[in-house]
Amino acid sequence: MLRLNGHLLNFTQFPNGETHVNGQEIASIIIGTTKKHYELEFTYESDMDLIRLLMVKKHLDLAIDKKIALVVRYMPYSRMDRVEGHSVFTLKYVSEFINDMNFDTVIIHEPHSDVTPALINRSQSAFPTKFHLPTVLHKINFDKNNDYLFFPDAGAQKRYHDVLGYKQVVGHKHRDFETGDIKGLEVVGAMEKGKKVLIVDDLCSKGGTFFHSAKALKELGAGEIYLFVAHCEKSIYEGDLLDSGLVEKVFATNSMQEESGHERLEILKVF
Prior knowledge:
Layout: E1 2-4, E2 7-8, E3 11-13, E4 19-21, H1 23-32, E5 37-42, H2 48-63, E6 67-72, H3 90-99, E7 105-109, H4 115-119, E8 123-126, H5 128-139, E9 148-151, H6 154-159, E10 167-175, E11 182-188, E12 197-204, H7 208-219, E13 225-232, E14 249-253, E15 265-268
Parallel strand pairs: 5-6, 6-7, 7-8, 9-10, 9-12, 12-13, 13-14, 14-15
Antiparallel strand pairs: 1-2, 1-5, 3-4, 10-11
């Protein structure tokens, strides 16, 4: 999904499957704008969005003589940020694809690791999870002096290292990198029993990491458990997390879905 200066761009397909870019729609947005720069907002839904991004950017380069910024709500392929075994470094290739479009600025929301901003030229990172954390803490009646934040792995702990003033514990998970399957998880650090726990991370797909996290936390005596992620894929409905009884509620920003499809999932409209 693409927005140009806040306007949703509509695409259709020719009978053979090729994408039809609506040039008249783009021209109307150009005529109606008074901004000194343009902003393309990219929300990944499928690889087709990358092709659409390329076509729109190339068209804008010919149509206007102004700076164009790219806002990436979720960076696709961000989990494939290294090579292990026979895995393919797809994040690098997608980053090169974006770099070739030569945006003046690229703002990446909640990058999965430091590798993404390192690969993207002229990039900046933004963390909506940090900004909206107080809202979630208020919703769950979190007691800063008694309750805990939990980070499922060292990567999450590093990502939110500047979230200070809270009791924290961290997980150590065992994952098959090529399949993404979680083989197990251990909780590192002491935790008082009966306390509320908010799990914080960047991305939830089917929820395996958080299922194992909540299970391990419950075994250590945790009370109510909640989850807050920046990006929540629709595949969460295919997993066991929401109906497991282990997590009271999942909170996520609307970077991947605008409406919730489950009573235990709340989508925060932050964009």
